[in-house]
Amino acid sequence: MRRVVVVGLGPAGLWSAISARVADSSAEVVVLSDEKYLTYSRCGLPFVIGGEIGSFEELVITSIDKLKSLRIQVFLESRVVDVDGDEVVYEHRGELHRIKFSSLVLATGSKPFIPPIPGIDAGGVYSLRTINDGVAISKASMKARRALVIGAGAIGLEVAEALAERGLEVTVAEIMPRVLPAILDGDMARILSQAIRSSGVNLMLNSRVEEIIGNPTVSSAVVGEVEVPCDLVVVATGVRPNVDLARKVGVSIGATGGIETDEFMRTSIEGIYAAGDCAETKHLVTGRPFTPFLGSVAYRQGKVAGANAAGSSLRFAGSLGSTVLRVFGFEVGFTGLTCEQAKGEGIRTVVGKVKWLTKAEYYPGAREIVVKLVFRADDGKLIGGQIVGGEAVAQRINLLAAAIACGMDAESIASIDTCYSPPVADAIEPITRAAEIALRKLRK
Q1: Helices 430-443 & 394-405, crossing angle to 10 degrees?
Q2: Closest by alpha carbon to 371, among 361, 360, 384, 359?
Q3: 3-state DSSP assignment of residue 106
Q4: pTM of the model
Q5: How far is CA 259 from CA 10, 16, 82, in A?
Q6: DSSP letter at 285?
Q7: Class level of CATH domain 3-110+240-309
Q8: Can you tell me the distance from the alpha carbon of 440 to that of 444, in angstroms, rounded to the nearest whole number?
Q9: CATH architecture under which domain 330-443 falls
Q10: What is the pLDDT of residue 315?
Q11: What is the mean pLDDT of residues 210-214?
């Protein structure tokens, strides 16, 4: 009998196990996880801290009963320490155990990147990756008055808003010259920066945290040349692939630091697959490997890895890094490449950008939306999109992602047959309008 062993129970691990079961109903499917919780949404952690979601337990998206009904065996608080031939060695409650496998899926996720800032080990300094982290930050915020968030990526901004909602004075320090530097160009980021500052959050861009002061508990931090009082610090400086086990196993690690995989999610060792934050994938515009660190990508990769570990031949073509979030009254979306990223790849670009409304201008509740489309100058094909608006961003980003994947150019996007109804959408769709602007530039 085939036995598929999955290491990790995030979205990639969960869907690897489910897909393995679907692909081979007779296989034995075993999942080993070092956490005490079943699969939960890490992306939801800031919203529990901010009070929009009632408890961390609500983030758990499966149950033992559901997994048992699928005949998936789960061992929680079981840390895999090695792979010896065709056996996984794991530790549970101080004892070592072994389990044989026919195929193995590494879904070990990622871990927070903690920069080497003097004093970062002081009490009151946290990162946010697990439910336990969220609980600790929530408890600390009840006694804190001033918070410093290091990093203005998605998690950093969501945590900053959550802490502000709890009544704390919040400072966000970002070493880059703009917020969300991985997904927004400067012109689009400025829209969000204005909203952040208008909310009362102290936003410090181009600002490196030089030192955290506190013995034993944080009392302030030196940001640039300014001392910022704070009794709570959240480090949100991104994550790195968790490849400690992969290195022990001996699979190839790629240039991005993730596990090298092919379109079948196979690693360099036969019978071993990888999925989720620990794995590299191909960028659908550049063709280069990258690590998206997105739950949506982990889910899709897990489906492919698990099915193939159980004998199927599914493919994962790659990703565009499509992202959406809601912070400080705005929805922000991205897919493909920014102008800055395209320049780094040596791609000449033409941009179409428009400010519009999400409904007919006379209809109550219409919100502003700014759409920026990035086209390749050589052939006019869409290679990226950024949207910042009050509503209706996610599905527009999905549309742009589909357009990129299908190789659509400015002319074909400008000709999309869009829908209209005053309370739902304007007669002029901002995406097609932005494409029209770019098309005129391309034809010059």
Answers
A1: 40
A2: 384
A3: strand
A4: 0.95
A5: 17, 16, 16
A6: T
A7: alpha beta
A8: 7
A9: 2-Layer Sandwich (3.30)
A10: 98
A11: 97
Nearest alpha-carbon partner for 348 in 321, 389, 377, 374:
377
- Complete DSSP assignment for 192-261: HHHHHHHTT-EEE-S--EEEEEESSBEEEEEETTEEEE-SEEEE---EEE--HHHHHHT--B-TTSSBP-
CA 354, CA 336: separation in Å to the nearest integer? 18
Tell me the residue ranges of DSSP E strands in 18-102. Answer: 28-32, 72-75, 78-84, 87-92, 95-100
Provide the pairing of β-strand 146-150 with 169-173.
parallel
The catalytic residue among 43, 230, 278, 339 is 43
User: 414 with 432: CB under 8 angstroms?
Assistant: yes
Tokens of 88: 């996984």
Model confidence pLDDT, tens digit, residues 344-376: 999 999 999 999 999 999 999 999 999 999 999
Task: Reply yes or no on whether 43 is catalytic.
Answer: yes
**By C-alpha distance, which of 71, 65, 75 is closest to 25?**
71
CA distance 186 to 177: 8
Between CA 77 and CA 66 the distance in angstroms is: 19
> To which residue do tokens 């044989």 refer?
100
- Both tokens assigned to 362: 């006379």
Residue 240 to residue 123: CA distance in whole angstroms: 23
Which residue in the block uniquely carries the two structure tokens 């489309």? 373
H helices of 50-167, in order, are: 64-69, 131-143, 154-165
Chain-centroid distance of CA 378 in Å reads 31
Task: Report strand pairing: 239-241 vs 110-112.
Answer: antiparallel
d(CA 345, CA 289) in angstroms, rounded, equals 13
Q: 3-class DSSP state for residue 66?
A: helix
The CATH number for 114-237, chosen from 3.40.50.720, 3.50.50.60, 3.40.640.10, 3.40.720.10, is 3.50.50.60
Q: What is the pLDDT of residues 383-437, one digit of tens each?
A: 999 999 999 999 999 999 999 999 999 999 999 999 999 999 999 999 999 999 9
